[in-house]
Amino acid sequence: MLSDSVVKGTTAGFASIAGAMMAESMGHMIPWLLVTAAVIVCDLVAGVRKSLLMGEEVRVSRAIRATMGKMVTYFAFVVMVCMIDVAAKSGQQLEKWMCLLICAVEGASILANILKPKGIDLNIGKVLALFVSKKTGINKEDIEEAMKN
Predict the structure, then answer these.
(1) Helix residue ranges, H only, the chain
(2) How far is CA 38 from CA 75, 86, 113, in A?
(3) Same domain, yes or no, for 79 and 133?
(4) pTM above the 0.90 mark?
(5) Using an 8 Å Cβ cutoff, are 101 and 36 in contact?
């Protein structure tokens, strides 16, 4: 009898704490999920535009599948980061910085999609290696070799 009431009380306490945490996390998540969705849609439009300008076949199913894959991955990442920030009560706005990271990754993809029809092939890995080599003084070839392996 006693163990049954302890289990019910513990479960009810956990459910109320988890519910409160989810409610607070949702307040943090919604703006960042909207920003993430907007950036992903912009990447979709830039990718379709690139394919049309280059005379490539545009398959709606492939475009939607790739976009949905990105959405699932990025949305899960934003949800996780928001929940960690709320649970840790860090106040560091971790979700803002992680969403900006997602925007930077997608922004690089959008930029590559815009430049490709103009004959400019943007290699993000090499750009990143160049940036790191300038900031750290490490040889660019060493960084590129490390990224390959």
Answers:
(1) 2-53, 60-88, 94-115, 124-136, 140-148
(2) 12, 24, 16
(3) no
(4) no
(5) no
CA distance 106 to 53: 20
103 and 51 belong to one structural domain: yes
Whether 16 and 48 map to the same domain: the answer is yes
- The pLDDT tens digits of the residues spanning 131-146 come to 777 777 777 677 667 6
Tokens 């912009």 found at:
42
One domain, residues 49 and 88: yes
Q: Tokens for 109, please give them.
A: 């993809």
Angle among Cα 68, 122, 144 to the nearest 5 degrees reads 100
CA distance 122 to 109: 9
Residue 143: which domain range?
121-149
131 and 112 both lie in a single domain: no
Per the listing, tokens 């003084």 go with 137
